[in-house]
Amino acid sequence: MPELPEVEAARRALAEHSIGKKILKAIVADDSKVIDGVSPKDFEAALVGKTIVGVHRKGKNMWIQLDSPPFPSFQFGMAGAVYIKGVAVTKYKRSAVKDTDEWPSKYSKLFVELADGIEFSFTDKRRFAKVRLLDNPVSVPPISDLGPDALIEPMTEDELSNSLTKKNIGIKALLLDQSFISGIGNWMADEVLYQARIHPQQTASSLSKESCATLLKCINEVTDFAVEVDAESLRFPTEWLFHVRWDKKPGKINGKKIDFIKAGGRTTAYVPELQKLSGNQAVKETDKRSKRTTTGKGGGVEESGSENEPTEPKVAKGRKIGSASKSSKKKSNASVEDSDGDEGDDVSSKRKRGAKKPPTKSKPKGGKTGEAEQRQTRGKGAAAKRKHKEIDDNLSNSGANGIEGGEEDA
């Protein structure tokens, strides 16, 4: 989604071409999912005839100040973008509408024509943005809920360090929390943490003062540079992770492998060789890897007890008896039909019939059991006996009650 640099680029372009000019015409889309809390007709009436006196931004939100309220406010969402006819404005790489598309675009949610002929449009291809009409945007959510802006309200080292000591969550999740610091999104967080050499899942409160200082330095540098070049990614330094982090594509940066994990609920690119967990988290991660290695070599019985569960001696449980009789499935259509149904019900029917009485559904259409079916049943029990002696013992001793005793463990 558009992050601080892209929204700031839109704000600057719009301010340059609109401040001091009167709104001649406005067209608002009939899309209540994006146009929030006001009808298109009322929205248009609130804009026409007004003069734009300022364009402001906080975090990933922007609003246009008119000579009198209410003011249009924009929450960019996943793919919000500002277009000015005849003017190049940097857009988030996944927000862009083709230059060859009609004007205004079919994705336009708010179109404005100014008295001097300048036209601009706010578009949203994916409809996750919100466009509102507010008397005082900074006094109500979402803007009132935002933390300090990463560009215009940077934290000091002490402020950041003191804040992190109280945050027992992963550092990337914290950077994405707009109430903690506003403007940083997914690609910025990945870039900042890569440059700071901090693992995205490192607990924020565990960072040393030195790491906090490095983190703040990287936040400021990435933010300032991206804004300075109007978020034009082709002008970002070639050694930035940004250029190789998209679409989970395998790759390397400066000869080191890039990996992808989930952090803060988002797909996260990082470089394991450079961004390592530290402290207790490093110890726990080492233990996990050691267990996974042991599981891989030894079949996993000791570690998880799940790898070979279907064939363990505890097969008195219904599900495991069904699994132990796989060989019998090849010997009769009746047993195949049983396995196609609900596994629990299948096992339950086997318990109730024991080894002597086949289920009613296995009878021929004429209603007779016959020697063939009896042989089939005996063959089934023999196969189970060859595979698991304990199962055979259970079946042999079940009597009229089948394996009812095993149901206590089911």
UniProtKB/TrEMBL annotation:
The keyword Oxidoreductase does not apply. Residues 280-410 are annotated as: Disordered. Residues 2-129 form the Formamidopyrimidine-DNA glycosylase catalytic domain. InterPro entries: Fpg-like_C, FPG_cat, FPG_Glyclase, FPG_N, H2TH_FPG, Ribosomal_uS13-like_H2TH. It holds the Pfam family H2TH. CDD domains: PF_Nei_N. Residues 350-366 have a biased composition (Basic residues). It catalyses: Hydrolysis of DNA containing ring-opened 7-methylguanine residues, releasing 2,6-diamino-4-hydroxy-5-(N-methyl)formamidopyrimidine; 2'-deoxyribonucleotide-(2'-deoxyribose 5'-phosphate)-2'-deoxyribonucleotide-DNA = a 3'-end 2'-deoxyribonucleotide-(2,3-dehydro-2,3-deoxyribose 5'-phosphate)-DNA + a 5'-end 5'-phospho-2'-deoxyribonucleoside-DNA + H(+). GO terms for biological process: DNA repair. Residues 337-346 have a biased composition (Acidic residues). It comes from the Eukaryota. Gene3D superfamilies: 1.10.8.50, MutM-like, N-terminal. NCBIfam families: fpg. Belongs to the FPG family. Monomer. This is Formamidopyrimidine-DNA glycosylase.
